Amino acid sequence: MATIGKPAALPPLAGAGRLVTSRRVRYRDWSGTAVTVVMPTYNEAANLPGIVAALMALPLPRLRLLIVDDDSPDGTGRLADRLADRYATGPCGPRIEVLHRDGKEGLGRAYEAGLRHALAAGAPYVLQMDADGSHQATAVCAMLETAHRSGAGLVVGSRYVRGATVSGRWGVHRRLLSTWGNSYARAILRVPLRDLTGGFNLWRADVLRTVGLGGAEAAGRSLRSAGYALQVELKYRATRKGFEAVEVPIRFGERLRGSSKMSLAVQWEAALLPWRLLLAGLR
Questions:
Q1: Residue 66 CB partners (closer than 8 Å, separation 6+)
Q2: CA 252, 39, 229, 277 torsion: positive or negative?
Q3: What is the C-alpha separation between 150 and 145, in angstroms, rounded?
Q4: What is the pLDDT of residue 268?
Q5: What's the family (predicted)?
Q6: CATH code of the domain made up of 25-278
Q7: Alpha-carbon span 100 to 128, nearest angstrom
Q8: Could you tell me which residue, 233 or 204, shows the higher pLDDT?
Q9: Separation of alpha carbons 107 and 54, rounded Å
Q10: Which residue of 38, 89, 200, 263 has the fewest CB atoms within a 10 Å radius of its CB?
Q11: Distances in Å between the alpha carbon of 200 and those of 105, 188, 240?
Q12: How many other CB atoms are there within 10 angstroms of residue 168's CB atom?
């Protein structure tokens, strides 16, 4: 029988705002942590099975996956249901749940629905993760360990700290767009994170509730971002509230199959959002 070893030691943490004190933790201290991975999908049928298998193989018995499908024309939602049946048994009940939405409203709205759903179900940690294969499942353990040893409310799987790598298949246009988008948002909002736009983020539940998700205080209240700009908005709100955030290096790959959803409308929203947040004086 194959065995899964403990993850290798992590590099030093990159802290946001002030020095983060690291404390020693043992594998058993965090390997039993309950965490819900929220994964929006739209036409990701070609990528989903491999990503799900990689997540289910992690040495995290209390990891659950919430797939949020926006009525994908390629049948991703139906495939997700079949995968949920395949992984129906776990120590905390079914390991995969599928949230079916009526149509495509944007990544931000899908994430908002999924994050609220995970919080309502009592998840103590919630992880955002893309369904296109660009985020490596093997990094989840390192992110959980970092959350425990740093005490941070947000752990960012970062493409732009020392030790991170970005796929050579990522085109020049996408690299420039990502680099410019990060620099632009950071300059306006003064958020002390190198990867402000990245979508691989581990949140403590209380942080998400405080920034406007979950709980009675958030009833009827929506975030401002409908698209990819949600990543910037959540991090801005969290750091403005004084929560600690740290970044860990990841290996970021190009999507495995299919096409990017990065439209001009999404890019325009991302360009306007920092100014909207700044002018609104959100705290």
A1: 36, 37, 38, 39, 96, 97, 98, 99, 114, 117, 118
A2: negative
A3: 8
A4: 59
A5: Belongs to the glycosyltransferase 2 family.
A6: 3.90.550.10
A7: 17
A8: 204
A9: 23
A10: 89
A11: 20, 22, 20
A12: 8
